[in-house]
Fold:
Amino acid sequence: MTDRDAIQKGEENLIARERIRYQWMLEHIAKFRFFFVALVFAMLSFSVQFSVQGTNRAGMWCQAAAWLLLLLTGVFALRDAGGLVAKYTEDAFEGLKPATRQTMWMCFLLAVVLLTVARLVSDGRLNFWVERAR
Structure:
């Protein structure tokens, strides 16, 4: 085997390894997207099942807004994972545009914060701030 053949063989091996690495990365991205869809809908179902009980309207409104944001996040996450494709010829795994993905993450974080606030208000830990705002 000549030096040229060895160099060519090394380049082919490098290209094959890069292709395998790229496929591995794509598989893990797809798994994370499906995990996030499951996480969002699990949080939504758990928060609905164990909703805040009480007469405090601030807590109820925070909870309702969080549910809507989680539902919106779930729809975005499904679209990002390849679901809700309008046409069968559409490339499903292209994912969301960066601005839409950022909106999805902001909705998720805001929903988590609102669920936390709803719990704290219903427990009476934020009554001082709610009374002060009235």
